[in-house]
Amino acid sequence: MGVGIEVSELNAWYGSNHTLQNINLRIPANHATALIGPSGCGKSTFVRCLNRMHETNPVGRVTGSVLIGQLDIYTQASPVEIRRRVGMVFQRPNPFPTMSIYDNVASGLRLNGYRNRVVLDEVVQRSLEQAALWEEVKDDLKKKSGASLSGGQQQRLCIARALAVDPEVMLMDEPASALDPVSTAKIEDLIFQLKSQYTIVIVTHNMQQAARVAENTGFFLNGRLVEFDATHKIFTNPRDKRTEDYITGRFG
Amino acid sequence: MEIRIQVPNVAGESERIQKPAGSSFPDSGSSQSPARAFLQSRRSSAFADRIFSAVILLCALCIFAIVALILYELVSGSRLSIDKFGVAFFFRSAWDPVNGDYGAFPFIYGTLVSSILALIIAVPLAVGVAVFLTEMCPGFLRAPLAFVTELLAAIPSVVYGLWAIFVLVPLLRDSVNPFLIRVLGWSGLFVEPNYGVGMFAGGVILAIMILPIVSSLTREVISAVPQAQREAALALGATRWEMIRMGVLRNARIGIVGAIILGLGRALGETMAVTMVIGNRPEISRSLLDLGYSMASVIANEFSEASDNLYLSALIEIGLALFIVTIVVNALARVLVWAVTRGAPVRGA
Ligand SMILES: Nc1ncnc2c1ncn2[C@@H]1O[C@H](COP(=O)(O)OP(=O)(O)OP(=O)(O)O)[C@@H](O)[C@H]1O
Ligand SMILES: [Mg+2]
To answer: Which one-letter DSSP state was computed for residue A28?
Structure first.
């Protein structure tokens, strides 16, 4: 079962660049939440604050609190524990190039000491099927490396890798930006299935995609959360003029 | 001014291309943008390209020529000894200038053993230093520490030799060796007599000398691993050590093997410091604390004393042996890299 996320007074910096300013937001459990906004507005930075990835940047700094379920991730747990519960798919695919496809998907479980072959085989197959990649790679799971796949296949491999550890929350930073329409549709189907059990946060530049998969949508602009509401409201009757301008394509 | 990419004006299609209404953009037919005019005025440079490849090819061939020349000189210089002892020269243990009886085996053994010893000591240390410097070191310490490690490489080897004689050898003789004898004596590798100087001292000084090159190359390879790989491991819940193993070392391993090979190359050919501490006795002993000799050392030590032609020729043949050993070791290392990487489908970053 997924858990909700409650963000309050979140601020993030890259050096002196105040990238996120006073973000307050409640992301409901077992729903998909879309984040939209123009390039450079801080969407990636925001999702990276949800699994404490932002602080791995040498100049990254965060203040404020993020509750995942009941847990304050910045004070009550270590980053390692958090990241085991909060999976992430990065904006740019980053499979492990020296590992086979199989090992890439199994890497999360192996990392945590999981060695049972039969279960690993099952998990790898299930994750690759969920990520709509199984049919394309099933014949050379252990022969081909993660780097030998196409960009879109690599992204789906990364999705499978994140799914394999069965996280409670799934952060997806533009998971479909390098995919063709068919794979994109499969990923959207996946999000549809997943959201009954996981909490999903998806960053996207594709408004239709946000409208199709997410119950709630947040609009970011220049490091601030301008508006957060039910997706249909954002797209049909936004409260803020800037949101309306953005979704109607008047700027961005 | 805003730069826009224009649709090429294909003959016959030009009338179909419409200018945007109210465009202030100059008509490409009459006046072109300066960048485009410049690019179009350049001729194809196929000729320059051909010259360039010819020059490069020449440089590459030079390398082969030099190697062939060295080999030729070594073989012709050792003619006498080759005629007298044949291939057996490389496997004989005799070294008796008085009676004109020579063999290269103790020297080959000494060079290989001291170099391998050096690798065993230096590689874990060098990789540790590199990982520390790139992944864990606080920022303000990084540059000074890296600088100091690299400075080690700039010290002349005779200075290492002196330091070894005055500091390292007494230290080994009085503290380290007795300990090794007590703990590892059962293996036969560390047994009395303990002179201080010897094969082990040679290995240790070589280890110190190759440490900087192995660690600075490893550091470069490690910093070339994309940040995204580290993040990928971290996002799966890796601890820092797991991240280093999975996201960093695994990706860098081929480069690290390359660094080790370069270090080994340096160890095999190192002369001065080794000569000063290895003991200079052409014998093969199981104990690493015993005296030994290396190929480079014997050439350096005895070349000026070589009184007759056979002696000189035997020394040159040792040079040939060193040449061959270096090539064989490098080839083996390459096979190793190939074998290691064959299982996993690919090369690292
Ligand atoms: N590693 C970094 N170091 C310094 N500044 C950064 C770094 N990454 C992002 N920034 C800055 O933070 C701001 C927000 O970047 P972020 O990547 O969060 O944008 P985004 O909304 O995800 O954009 P996009 O839609 O293009 O992915 C940008 O102004 C960018 O310049
Ligand atoms: Mg982004």
So the answer is: P
Looking at CA atoms only, how far is residue B70 from chain A in angstroms?
Answer: 39
Q: What does the pLDDT read at residue B7?
A: 43
Cβ–Cβ gap B237/A53 under 8 Å: no
B70 falls within a domain: no
Give the position, in ligand 1's atom list, of the atom nearest the Cα of A220. Answer: 21
Which residue owns the Cα nearest ligand 1 atom 28? Answer: A40
Amino acid identity of residue B89, one-letter, is: F
Number of domains in chain B: 1
Nearest by CB: B237 against A95, A112, A143: A112
Q: Which atom in ligand 1 lies closest to the alpha carbon of residue A205?
A: 25
pLDDT tens per residue, range B87-118: 899 998 889 888 889 999 999 999 999 999 99
Token output for B333? 């290392």
DSSP class per residue in B38-103: HHHHSPP-HHHHHHHHHHHHHHHHHHHHHHHHHHHHHHHHTHHHHHHHGGGGGG---EETTTTEE-
**A16 CA → ligand 1 middle, Å:** 13
Residue A114 lies in a domain: no
* Chain A positions touching chain B (beta carbons under 8 Å): 51, 53, 56, 58, 79-81, 83-84, 87-88, 90, 92, 94-100, 107-108, 111-112, 143-145, 147-148, 158, 161-162, 165
Residue B30, domain member (yes or no): no
Q: Does residue A97 line the site of ligand 1, with CB under 6 A?
A: no
Low-confidence ranges of chain B (pLDDT < 50): 1-15, 23, 28, 343-349
Q: What is the pLDDT of residues B131-143, one digit of tens each?
A: 999 988 888 888 8
Can you give the CATH number for the domain in which B122 is found? Answer: 1.10.3720.10
Q: Name the helix (H) or strand (E) containing B135.
A: none
Instruction: Return the beta strands (E) in A15-85 as ranges.
Output: 17-27, 32-36, 60-68, 71-72
Whether B14 is covered by a domain: the verdict is no
Please answer yes or no on whether A58 and B139 come within 8 Å at the CB atom: yes
Q: Residue A161 in 3-state DSSP?
A: helix
Residue A20's domain is classified under what CATH number? 3.40.50.300
Total count of domains within chain A: 1
Domain housing A229 = 5-98+167-247
Closest Cα of chain A to B328: distance in Å? 28
Contacts of B130 (CB under 8 A, 6+ apart): B215, B216, B218, B219, B222
How far is the first Cα of chain A from the last one, in angstroms, to the nearest whole number? 36
Q: Is residue A107 part of a domain?
A: no
Contacts of B242 in chain A (CB under 8 A): 111
Nearest to B348 among A83, A97, A143 (CB): A97
Cα separation, A223 vs B36, in Å, equals 39
Chain A hits for B236, CB-CB cut-off 8 Å, are 83-84, 107-108, 111, 161-162, 165
* Ligand 1 geometric centre to CA of A43 (Å): 8
Q: What is the DSSP letter of B176?
A: I
